[in-house]
Amino acid sequence: MPEISRFLLLVLLSLLISDARAKRIRDINQPVVTYDARSLIINGSRELLFSGSIHYPRSTPDMWPDLIKKAKECGLNVIQTYVFWNIHEPVQGKLNFEGNYDLLKYIKLIGDSGLWVTLRIGPYIEAEWNMGGFPYWLKEVPNITFRSYNEPFMFHMKKYAETIINMVKAEKLFADQGGPIIMAQIENEYNNVQLSYREMGTKYIKWAADMAVGLYNGVPWIMCKQKDAPPTVISTCNGRQCGDTFPGPNGPDKPSLWTENWTAQYRVFGDSPSQRAAEDLAFAITRFFARNGTLNNYYMFHGGTNFGRTSSSFVTTRYYDEAPLDEFGLKRDPKFGHMRDLHKALRLSKKPLLWGVQSIQRVSPDLEITLYEKADSHMCAAFLTNNNTKLDLSINFRGVDYFLPAKSISILPDCKTVVYNTNTVVSQHSSRNFITPAESKVAKWEMFKEAIPTINELEIKSKVPRELYHLNKDMSDYAWYSTSINFERRDLPMRSDILPILMIASLGHALAAFVNGEYVGFGRGSNVEKSHVFKKSVVLNPGINNISILAMTVGLPNSGAYMERRFAGPKVVTLEGLMAGTLDITNNHWGQQVGVNGERLQIFSEEGSKKVHWVPFDGKSGPITWYKGYFDAPGGNEPVALRMMSMEKGMVWINGLSIGRYWVSYLSPLGKPTQEEYHVPRAFLKPKGNLIVVFEETGGYPDKIEIQTVNRDTICSIISDFHPTPVKPFEQKNNQFRSIGNPVKAGYLNCPDGKVIEKVEFASFGNAEGACGAFTPGKCESPKTHKVVEQLCLGKPSCTIPFEKETFFEDNKDPCPDVTKTLSVQVRCGVSRKSANLSFFL
After folding, report:
1. Nearest 5°: phi and psi at 88?
2. Which pLDDT does position 438 carry in this prediction?
3. 325 and 70 Cβ atoms separated by less than 8 Å
4. Strands 234-239, 221-224: pairing kind
5. Common-topology check for domains 44-348 and 434-448+600-710
6. Rounded to an integer, what distance in angstroms lies between the CA atom of residue 732 and that of residue 244?
């Protein structure tokens, strides 16, 4: 090759490389995540986003990979999490991102799994979390007003937000840096309190948006439930029915996003069970996507556990257990399976949804057809809706009659084929089991009783009882208050059958009262009315009488305006029924102490437990008593829980780590505790010799605490006559839908974790009633059902049971043909002998 030609070739290559570099630089500088009125656009592509909230501090790092894996299995492509200021900066200026507070590790795990992240920085998060995520020290900053155009608050809020953003930037975790974070949120549901702050609220919300975008503008910022959100952010919806209640985002150029779809409801102590049917959840999601929605986030997808003292006022230790993944990370079917199938159906409709034109036809007051079509193409998806909550109806669409169960939507990704109906659950059901292994018992329970202090023994003195929040500074749930009073004999009632009354008006949350070292009783408020009045008769003696109160918080406030101005603790203390009438002893001079002595000595840890003298448990129930024992971890890898039904109220530690508050004596309207079992993460356990320490506030029997394993090995299938034949599975190829299996109306069962069906616990082809784990036989049953199911299912990891009358009735002779038939099957899964033998040899 001549030298001139070689030179020209090198110049040309150099120019091409230079142009490619310039283009790459331009591409890097272009936003990776943008949006328009239809959807978020990620890496140049419109997306349907299926998201779930999983909060890193409500589980442990060893649980994170499995939770993320199951989220992906359910069809999610985004995980949403708050950032929790008070765990990361519990002491001003001292940051903590260790253990299950390792935010960066968590984000990286999500990204490594191929999922995106929505980061809700807050820093106010609510979340049924202590102080809504604010650290307690913030409350005591001079002249501060939370969530307002207030210089002290804005200074600390910006400083913290900047800290988090800079950490994330340094690890290149934002999408425009190649990371998984596609959106971020500033503030949270501010509209709920904005009017309380008047013009300072309006100014604040604009400042918050400008501040966030000013700190980082590589991904979109959102504000949920913010009607007047500034144009630099996207306003999103929270609630249960955003397809009907959301007025739309704050501008014609913004997509409709649903940041909190409540999968049930968090619970406070005293609540009855919280439920939300899979069918209702599916209907709401489908309606939202049929009405231009492009992101649905399950709040929560996995609720987890409020370890330690992290839950807000009266909120249970277990959080959003009714989510698709329960507290222990186990799949809650049919919710998990029904949502997985919904995500598949919506993905089949992706192209017409994101590029088609919407039209809505109201056929009748109850029936409507929503179409997404694109002219001159094969793109077409239809949503057929029956809004009647009681009646099944039919609808004619393009010459074909489609059956629609009551309150349901059918999805037709090709405008022909029904691939999903929101009310037709073909997913299996499951029931959770708590098993008490014989080998895992607490040995050698010992006890240590807290001393009842008098005013002279308490270090903090004041004329009146100090306000509880300020006294404790969120360092403990407990504080002692004590005073003394001298009575002459003539001051006391003359009759022995008349006793004085101790009255304590408290701003919350609970208290235990003692007179002269004797337990008088326990009083509490509630989540609705935290203030309460304690009244009990007491025995007073001539001479010095010591009155001591153990005041308690059950979490700090997490919502509402002016959180920094909340108060708690004893407010007025009187003695009624004295010879001179009622005596107000509020101004009698008091001693106070933060925490109880065992807590201050950390006797819940192995080292701390050596600082006090323990004695064998005497079998008697008593207040303010510590108990300790040791146990071996149950075999296997199933989640572990403590059944606390023999106790009343207090806290539990395992190997020095708090698993949270228990309160089984607070009964719901059903006459049962709101929470009976308490999660012990496997990461907290050693194979042998685990230390359990319980602080019981009012009285209980620790020797009856049970160590349990948790599974969902009870699985069920429920298919009825009125279920249409499921048209599944389908695949999409070249805009055509093709069956990859014969449509079969059948019950499907699939054991978790590679187990096999070891027992058929219930089988009915007839009119059985009840639910998975609680079936009862009907009056019209096939006697063959149990045998048929055993033949089809025993010893197998999964099985299919055809819904065919000829299978269950001899010669197809149905003794009650007018009765609607339901196939109800419940089986128990277990480890196969083959697997067990293999495990033994390994």
Report:
1. -85, -25
2. 87
3. yes
4. parallel
5. no
6. 30
| Single-letter residue type at 562 | Y
> Residue 539's pLDDT band (boundaries 50, 70, 90)?
very high
Bond prior to 509 in cis (omega within 30° of 0): yes
DSSP states along 507-532: SSSEEEEEETTEEEEEEE--SS---E
Sign (positive/negative) of CA torsion 328, 334, 337, 341?
A: negative
Residue 739's pLDDT band (boundaries 50, 70, 90)? very low
Read off the tokens for 457. Answer: 């023994």
Residue pair 454/355 in contact by the 8 Å Cβ criterion: no
| Phi/psi at 582 (5° precision) | -95, 130
How is 675-727 classified by DSSP, letter by letter?
Answer: --EEEE-GGG--SS-EEEEEEESS---GGG-EEEEEEEEEEEEEEETTSPPP-
Residues 299/396, Cβ–Cβ less than 8 Å: no
Residue 532, exposed/middle/buried by CB under 10 A (0-12, 13-18, 19+)? middle
List residues with catalytic annotation: 189, 260
Q: Where do the structural domains in the chain lie, given as residue ranges?
A: 44-348, 353-426, 434-448+600-710, 454-590, 744-841
Q: What is the CATH number of domain 744-841?
A: 2.60.120.740
Burial class (CB in 10 A: 0-12, 13-18, 19+), 50: buried
DSSP-derived letter for residue 667 is B
Mean pLDDT along residues 527-532: 96
Q: For residues 406-417, give the mean pLDDT.
A: 97
Is 754 within 8 Å of 713 (Cβ atoms)? no
Residue 439 has pLDDT above 90, yes or no: no
First to last CA, the chain: 67
- State yes or no: pLDDT of 748 exceeds 50: yes
Residue 833 has phi, psi (to 5 degrees) of -60, -35
CATH 3.30.430.20 applies to domain 434-448+600-710: no
Report the C-alpha gap between 221 and 294 in whole angstroms. 16
CATH 2.60.120.260 fits domain 454-590: yes
CA gap 544, 488 in Å, rounded: 9
φ and ψ at residue 255, rounded to 5 degrees: -80, 165
CB-based contact 226:186 (threshold 8 Å):
no
Average of per-residue pLDDT values in the chain: 93
For 475-508, the pLDDT digits (tens) are 999 999 999 999 999 999 988 889 999 999 999 9
Structure tokens at 248: 């739309």
Mean pLDDT across the stretch 381-407? 97
User: CB neighbours (10 Å) of residue 717?
Assistant: 28
Exposed (0-12), middle (13-18) or buried (19+): which is 764, by Cβ within 10 Å?
Answer: buried
**629 burial level (CB within 10 Å; 0-12, 13-18, 19+):** buried
**pLDDT for the residue 837:** 42
Please check the confidence at residue 114 and state whether its pLDDT lies above 70.
yes
Q: How many CB atoms lie within 10 A of CB 531?
A: 14
Classify domain 44-348 by CATH architecture: Alpha-Beta Barrel (3.20)
| Cβ atoms < 10 Å from Cβ of 344 | 17
Under 8 Å between Cβ of 111 and 168: no
d(CA 49, CA 68): 16
Look at residue 740 in the predicted model and tell me its pLDDT.
42
Identify the H or E element spanning 490: none
Would you list the DSSP string of 33-72?
EEE-SS-EEETTEE--EEEEEE-GGGS-TTTHHHHHHHHH
What percent of the chain clears pLDDT 90, i.e. is strictly above it? 87
Query: What is the four-CA torsion angle of 374, 351, 178, 81, rounded to 10 degrees?
Result: 120
Peptide bond into 729 cis (omega under 30): yes
